[in-house]
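Batch job 17 of 40 flagged for manual review because the log was empty.
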Amino acid sequence: MAEVIVVGAGVGGLAAAIRLQHAGHRVSVLEQSSSVGGKLGTLEHDGFVFDTGPSLVTMPHILAELFAATGTPVDDVLDLQRLPIAARYRFPDGTDLDVPGDLAEIPDALDAALGAGCGAQWSSFLDHARRIWDATHGPFLESPISLRDMASLARRVDDVRTVAPWSSLRGLASRYLHDPRLRMMADRYATYTGSDPRRAPAALASVPWAEQHWGSWYVRGGLGRIAIALTDRLNALGGHVETGTAVREIRVRDGRADGVITAAGDLRPADLVVANADAAQVYSSLVDTSPARRQLRRLQRSTPSLSGFVILLALGDEPPGQPHHRVLFPTDYDAEFDAVFGRQGVPRPVTDPTVYITAPDDPAIVPAAGTGAWFILVNAPRHDPESGTDWDSDGLVQSYADHVLEVMAARGIDVRHRIRHRIELSPADLARRTLTPGGSIYGSSSNGPRAAFLRPANASPIPGLYLVGGSAHPGGGLPLVLLSAKITAGLIGRA
């Protein structure tokens, strides 16, 4: 039995803490914020409840396995509901497409909305994506990553052909998808890792397959309930979370992590430390050793992931018949990625962005029938005052929010006259709230053929220190963060 301190009460930190506490360790979670959840945030105002992070649960069996493995069925603590319509897409030509939540129904829906043959194109693409999943999910997504794993895959010629490490997501999709609207749908999945589809690896095709195979789910009351359920489970097992306690340093003595020092100067000794913080933050601010500096230099060679600009809308009179999730595509998708990643100039706000609208049909998150709590997201460059976008510059946040609402109106969703109040959250706000450098949602992007497999390892090069969360292996998003926690807890169990 070990004394374990987890730094950060995001989903990854809480999930790792639950597994470790259940395994017999004594676990304390220290969270600098006054609330739990990390990027899975919640904001309440005037009776409206907003999720400020993920809007959907995908691969819900991973969440269910965590609770089942540690003593309780997920259905006892969370009301998970499968969405009949996963998303409504609006394409630049004005075509609307409702993607069913049932994979078997998707080809017919594509044919009906986009034209005969589109369903077959998408099915062929997903068949290849399924084979990528089969080749990669065991050795990469569910296991500690190592160069030995990559070498093992390289020796399996058929798997190499399937994963196509020399190809981008855009390149692979173009082999199967001849309708430009289908290619836009495929491109969108690069943003699940904060990446550019022209540079993200073809392996990311497994993302749409997994999402559509297991469906899209919502938690009644908002996805923030997940963090509460995780905290409750940890408490029931005997662990505890201490909010409002920032960590200034992960102490390393004789080459081994042996505790943390809080911002108040208190030493909290531990046998093991699990950092649920952005890897760049860990290796630049919390640990100062030669191995940490080497890891930081490696991270600095990667491309940071994109960030997001969020508008929370409290609507006094919600338009009827809204889908849970809506995506409004721009005329020029490439121009969006050029702007966010600084091609042909510095990283900059997108003039004609893709707009993501989440409008849950959930009485638990609004003060009265007929009102709506809408989450609006657009891809955005990270906060970088020195060489990119300074999101704290006077008037930028308000003027850009106005612009996004104008874009929505031009694409047929004009709710400006229905707004009771609005709240903007910029990449700078995200950086401050989660201590994520620049507000990069996923740490490093998956831009480049090897990037998706070379995230910081869960076992750091410093004995006694482990990493968990979206910036570490295997990546960002709720299911991968939960897998990260399982991997980290397994490594500690074998240590």
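Reviewer: the log was empty due to a logging misconfiguration, but the result itself is present. The longest helix spans residues 118-141. Unflagging and moving on to job 18.
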